[in-house]
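hiii, so i know i said id send this last week but things got crazy w the move. better late than never?? heres the sequnce for the chain we talked about at the cafe, plus the structure i predicted for it. fair warning i was half asleep when i ran it
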Amino acid sequence: MKWRREFVIGVDVGTLSTRVGIFDLDGTMRGMASRPIAIFHPRPDLVEQSSEDIWENTGLAMREALKQAQVRPGQMVGIGFDATCSLVCLDRKFRPLTVSPTGDPSRNIIVWMDHRAIQEADAVNQTRHPVLAYVGGKISPEQQPPKLKWIKENFPETWAGTGKWMDLADFMVFRATGSDKRSLCTNVCKWTYLGHEGKNGSWDHTFFEQIGLGDLFDGGKVSKSAHPPGSFAGRLTDRSAMELGLKPGVRVGVGIIDAHAGGIGLLGDCAKRASKDQEVWNKTLALIGGTSSCHMATSVKPRFIPGVWGPYYGAMIPGMWLNEGGQSATGSLIDYIISNNSSHPEIEALAKKSGTDVYQYLNREIKKYPIPQLTKDIHILPYHHGNRSPRADAHARGVVLGLTLNQSVFEVARQYYATIQAIAYGTRHILETMNEKGYAISEVYMCGGHTRNDLFVQEHADVTGCRIHLPGEKEAVLLGTAILAAVASGRYRTVQDAMKTMSRVGETVSPNSAVQRYHEGKYKIFHNMYKHFLEIRQLGEKL
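okay and structure toks below
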């Protein structure tokens, strides 16, 4: 009966919005609200945000979620924060400090997808330092050391004036509690922290010395240690409580990256089954999709997989190792394909007239024709924002083969469908690479915006040959963060205990074996396109 009067909060800071979910302690969501957040593109490959804008909009979303849930602020016993793996810069008084060529001090976040540091990533990778083995052999410009190196080399005044460098999830916890308690997840996955070393992990300072960032740790700009997600970080301060519309003193959990929160929210069924058979983890992958997609596989022992991030100790499921594949552009690529033609306004108007969104409208158009053969003459290499895994090629670019002058709604639908298939081929490539190194993945648990697109889900099942399990709670990322809040509140002893009770499986989608031959052929073309892209790139470099 007590649980019906107590609630936990999950806050999810995504790429384009901040969302708040109110959950009871059995995992039922009582209310949810979302607010858009500002995003800036001052130059190609530069993407920036504002920590104050994000915090302010989180407060607005919090109030709306509480109102929707019809609960009182005093009923909240725990709060958790997840966020994109974006880099936050604060000055010595913990105010925003610019990372932008505009000089605007409010633009103090380099967003995860920002690729300004490609050359710095190349330079870091040339060191071949041993810590790079724990990021799949190559660091990405989406991770923090290359971005930090870029700032030091290009914005010396910002570098000299910095008081804190933080991952966005850690900033949210710091802003809420005043306690700088960094996450094992953010530090291991994005900063090269070695979570498996010693009792609580450690830094290899020789790496930072070698890449020219030996002074990064001076003055407490980066914490010396990290803590498991969901462990107690501190209590909500008076100021933060007022800004969020809550009561002071609520227990706050150590934060987590958004995709990893999704893994926790998805895999409660696996946590239950693993109590009897640890092999369950070896057969399971969590796929969290949105602007980009992350492919999370866990194991009892570390697995070193070239081109796949990790192995990361304790970054998602406590006590286990994580390998993380990913695609840098999925939802954003689909949106680009739909909007980048003259028929886009007509498609939007037709979708609105039929009472649906553009994705469902295009799906209906596609299903009027024989599928998947509709795409036999159009092929897409979906590397428009580089390849994160398993090629680890940030310089890769997208390729489309089979274009005509046709700009009809039908042609847009065909290109949209080919893009969905291309993303699924990318997922298959990641799974095969993981399975070659010891995994036996046959079950995929999927969450995120893509799960609302039945065509996207079915194509992933057909292309990979895996059963796709959808979450009982559609907002699995928010649920995963709420699970961590429940642990931080002391209502659950461990993350796994909370997962078993709060996370449930919904619908399962099985592959259609009748289309396997078609996809085998398209998958060969997918690989050949990258091979020919490399040949053309090499020729272009000689011009």
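btw The longest strand covers residues 17-24. thought thatd interest u
miss u guys!!
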